[in-house]
Amino acid sequence: MKKRTIVLAAFFLTGSITFAQSSKPPATNQSAPKHEQHKNVTFTAEQQKKLEAIMADTKDKSDAIKSNESLTKEQKQQQMLLLIQSSKQQSNAVLTAEQQAQLKSQRSETIKKRNANNY
């Protein structure tokens, strides 16, 4: 159960803030991510910059947790869950309610498809 929770939490983290970097902003000042899960969600340049910073910080902290040999496996799992929760809160603070709803809906569909393929 813990492993599944971690996998789902990691999926949310990578799924909700993974998007392509754009070399020049679109004319509408909106940036459409290239990640398949986010094909219907656009982020402003400011949102994209903030989300990229959150993602980079989360990755650095995740790497530190994984490489910390003084922690037990359970402690690492617990710290990763806390990190993912924190990252989710930070990301949601950047996103509008509509964007959050769109991403939640898309994540649900992706999980349903993944579960259907596994069984």
Question: Would you kindly provide a brief summary of this structure?
Answer:
With 119 residues, this protein is mainly α. It contains 4 helices and 2 strands.
Description:
By secondary structure, this protein is mainly alpha-helical. It has one domain (2-100). It is 70% helix and 3% strand. It has four helices and two strands; from the N terminus they run αββααα. The chain has helices at residues 2-17, 45-67, 73-94, 97-118, and strands at 30-31, 43-44. A two-stranded antiparallel ribbon has the order 1-2. The longest helix has 23 residues, at 45-67. The two termini are 17 Å apart.
Task: Estimate what percentage of residues fall within beta strands.
Answer: under 5%
Give the helix/strand class.
mainly alpha
Number of helices: 4
Helix content: 55-70%
Compute the separation of the termini in Å: 17 Å
Largest sheet, spatial ordering of strands:
1-2
Q: Largest beta sheet, briefly? A: 2 strands, antiparallel
Shape: flat
Mean pLDDT: 79
Query: From the alpha-carbon coordinates, what is the Rg to the nearest angstrom?
Result: 15 Å
Secondary-structure element string: HEEHHH
Q: Number of DSSP strands?
A: 2
Low-confidence stretches: 17-34
The domain tally reads 1
Signal peptide: 1-20
Protein name: DUF4890 domain-containing protein
Region (Disordered): 21-42, 94-119
Biased composition (Polar residues): 21-32, 94-105
List the helices and strands and how they pair.
Elements: H1 2-17, E1 30-31, E2 43-44, H2 45-67, H3 73-94, H4 97-118
Antiparallel strand pairs: 1-2
Protein name: DUF4890 domain-containing protein
Biased composition (Polar residues): 21-32, 94-105
Keywords: Signal
